[in-house]
């Protein structure tokens, strides 16, 4: 079984791509499987390539893998501009959500044309974010105990509030996404049941 994890990087997708195998990948100090946690670094276990569509770069990037000899799990280390199971970059998905929930329609239209998004992509992201709101609020509360979260309200209004809170309370959306994943072992856009990927 392969576990994915997200590590924080300030590198852009293009810089990451250009560095290739020379990129300073995350090096875990111990096994990352919760039932194992062997306190020796997992072994490097090659790479796989995956698609990324982002501002300024579209193509295949290398993802570093590690292997734990005790429990047999492999770990894939995704740079923080990626979200597991999405080929569009975190930045694009985040801006998409902001545009949709804050009605920035001319900008959304230009963006959609730029990255080739169709209506079903937009709908998919919007629905996924709405479906995950309760979960997102729960994890935000664990990350920032003093955070002021919206109470139950109209779902669109609540989504806007949560987007604003994340934008103001975290230095970057990549910081938010990385910390969210470390806390919950899921991305904030992870499937809560169905497995369609866009
Ligand atoms: Zn292990």
Shape: globular
Helix-strand pattern: EHEEEHHHHHH
Low-confidence stretches: 194-198
Approximately how much helix is present in the residues?
Answer: 40-55%
What portion of residues belong to β-strands?
15-25%
Spatial order of the strands forming the largest sheet: 1-4-3-2
Task: Give the rounded overall mean pLDDT.
Answer: 92
How many helical elements?
A: 7
Whole-number count of domains: 2
Quickly give the structural class: alpha+beta
Biggest β-sheet, characterized? 4 strands, mixed
Instruction: Report the radius of gyration as a whole number of Å.
Output: 17 Å
Protein name: DUF6431 domain-containing protein
Domain DUF6431: 45-93
Organism: Desulforamulus ferrireducens
């Amino acid at each position: 079984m392969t576990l994915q994890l997200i590590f924080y990087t300030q590198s852009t997708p293009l810089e990451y791509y250009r560095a290739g195998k020379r990129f300073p990948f995350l090096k875990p100090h111990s096994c990352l499987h919760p039932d194992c946690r062997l306190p020796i670094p997992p072994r490097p276990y090659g790479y796989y390539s995956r698609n990324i569509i982002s501002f300024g770069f579209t193509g295949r990037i290398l993802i570093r893998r590690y292997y734990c000899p005790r429990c047999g799990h492999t770990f894939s280390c995704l740079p923080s501009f990626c979200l597991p199971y999405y080929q569009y970059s975190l930045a694009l998905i985040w801006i998409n959500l902001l545009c949709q929930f804050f009605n920035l329609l001319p900008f959304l239209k230009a963006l959609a044309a730029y990255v080739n998004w169709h209506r079903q992509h937009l709908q998919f992201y919007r629905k996924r974010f709405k479906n995950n709101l309760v979960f997102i609020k729960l994890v935000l509360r664990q990350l920032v105990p003093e955070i002021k979260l919206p109470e139950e309200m109209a779902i669109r209004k609540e989504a806007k509030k949560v987007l604003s809170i994340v934008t103001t309370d975290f230095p970057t959306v990549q910081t938010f996404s990385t910390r969210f994943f470390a806390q919950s072992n899921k991305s904030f856009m992870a499937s809560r049941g169905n497995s369609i990927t866009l």
